[in-house]
Amino acid sequence: MDNFPKVSIIVCFKNDISNIRNHLHHWLEQDYPNYEIVLMDDFSDPWNYDLPKDEKLKYFKVEIDRPGKKQALKEGIRKSSGEILLLTDADCVPNTKGWVSSMMREIQDQEIVLGYGPFFKKSSLLNRFQRYETFLTATQYMSYALRRIPYMGVGRNLAYRHHLVSNNADILNESMASGDDDLLIQKIANSRNTGININPESFVYSVAPETFKSYFRQKMRHHSTSTSYKTGHKILLSLYSGSQIMFWLGVLTASFIANYKFLVFLPIKWLCQYVFTFRIYKKFMESDLLVWLPFLDFFMFLYYVIFAPLLLITKSRTDWK
Hints:
With 321 residues, the chain is α/β, with parallel strands linked by helices. The protein is built from 10 helices and 9 strands. It has 2 domains: 7-209, Spore Coat Polysaccharide Biosynthesis Protein SpsA, Chain A; 233-313, no CATH class. A 7-stranded mixed beta sheet has the order 3-2-1-4-7-6-8, with helices on both faces. Helix 1 links the parallel strand 1 and strand 2. The protein is globular.
């Protein structure tokens, strides 16, 4: 096994045994020859399910009951024996049996690999927007990583070397319920040690929230760490969202006050987006969203103007399930 460094897949869960039962076989059937699965049960309610007998599978109950996910992850890191830690969630399904192998190929010359965690496709407009927002977020954090400015990853699909966090477990002691992945990347990533994986066989899918209320709660948890970002990262991210807001406000204001012909800048914008990003949508297997681009772009403008500020002023919950 010397040519195959051991991988520890860490799955933290709380009252989510149904997803564990449904998805465990996807993790157990990976084609990588040297890995373990570390299940961390964060004080779930009693459940009736016999875990399969498999030498790769390890189950632990979290020892200390604290709000949020961080304690479970912290203990999971301690329990893991792999040289590489691969994080995912109980509700996540690898796209292929080559997920672990694909992530391992990318980490050979790196210490951190950022993966993609899209949502399953559904026909609702909410689902399309959730997928669009997830796609934009991924293209941002991956493109910044390629420019040697890594600032975040997603815990649904994230790999890093054990030694990076074995001496940095204190960064998981914050009181926030989510953002372990963000905070870890902020602490351990640098311009030389972070890569990305956009091979579709490495994608890890999950079901998007069914209602706007549940989606809002999820985004509250995810945004709870944004104040901890480095100043430079905040500025770069604000430039993108700010440019989108200024463009839409400028076009709409000019069309209303001066001449409706200013609206012609909207299809020009969408055409440019289509031309320059088509290959990226295709690579991420999200090209069906391009048909909805005008609507999704407008909803994203509303998100920046209304939704995002609301997330910042609304108190985040400390529970993660």
